[in-house]
Design brief:
Helix content: 10-25%
Radius of gyration: 18 Å
CATH architecture of the largest domain: Alpha-Beta Complex
CATH topology of the largest domain: Homing Intron 3 (I-Ppo) Encoded Endonuclease, Chain A
Distance between the termini: 13 Å
Structural class: alpha+beta
Number of strands: 13
Largest sheet: 4 strands, antiparallel
Strand content: 25-35%
CATH class of the largest domain: Alpha Beta
Shape: globular
Strand order of the largest sheet: 1-4-5-6
Length: 190
């Protein structure tokens, strides 16, 4: 699934919100305990939006999400070091750099919507808070939306495959970005 497809869904979801763009100037790397291990300054033409989009040199990025719904981008800092950051880290560190408490990491509030890297679905949280949020963690039966004219929502991939008479496992492959479409239909997890 490409970012442009997800953005259509997110822009409808937050239709009462205005998309705001901020320059990416400084990002930190954290260890597995949430401690800062390095800070990187940037002097580049790169902006991130409140809806989770990234723009470099005036062009909006349209990357493909991997099966874990993570998108990462490579940056070169002012010292010449190349560093990779996940999109949710870029968004939170750019929009709310001072709200982070020691040992906090970025948490998706609605964990079943990990593709939603907007400021409305992200927060700084400690490991305890994130563990209690795991009840929302995607499982075997995840809701699916048909992208296109209908925007129909289904309770599972299996239900979609039965209704549309599609091969077993095909809708899940589309939702994970392994294939773009199946019989002309495009789907994504909610």
């Amino acid at each position: 699934m490409r970012e442009s497809d997800i953005f259509q869904y997110i822009s409808r979801k937050y239709e009462d919100q205005k998309e705001v763009w901020l320059r990416v100037e400084r990002l930190a790397k954290f260890d597995s305990h949430g401690r800062v291990i390095s800070v990187h300054e940037f002097d580049m033409d790169c902006f991130v939006s409140s809806f989770g989009r990234l723009m470099r040199d005036g062009t909006i990025c349209d990357l493909t999400y991997c099966d874990k719904w993570d998108i990462s981008s490579m940056f070169t800092d002012v010292m010449g070091a190349q560093v990779r950051f996940k999109r949710h880290q870029i968004v939170m560190q750019t929009f709310y750099p001072d709200k982070r408490q020691q040992y906090d990491t970025v948490d998706h509030i609605e964990n079943t919507q990990r593709y939603d890297n907007s400021i409305y679905n992200l927060r700084w949280a400690n490991k305890d808070t994130q563990c209690t949020n795991r009840h929302n963690k995607p499982g075997k039966s995840r809701m699916v939306v048909c992208i296109g004219d209908s925007e129909e929502i289904y309770f599972s991939c299996r239900e979609v495959e039965r209704i549309y008479d599609l091969p077993c496992g095909s809708v899940g492959r589309v939702c994970r970005g392994e294939i773009d479409t199946i019989n002309g239909y495009r789907f994504c997890y909610l």
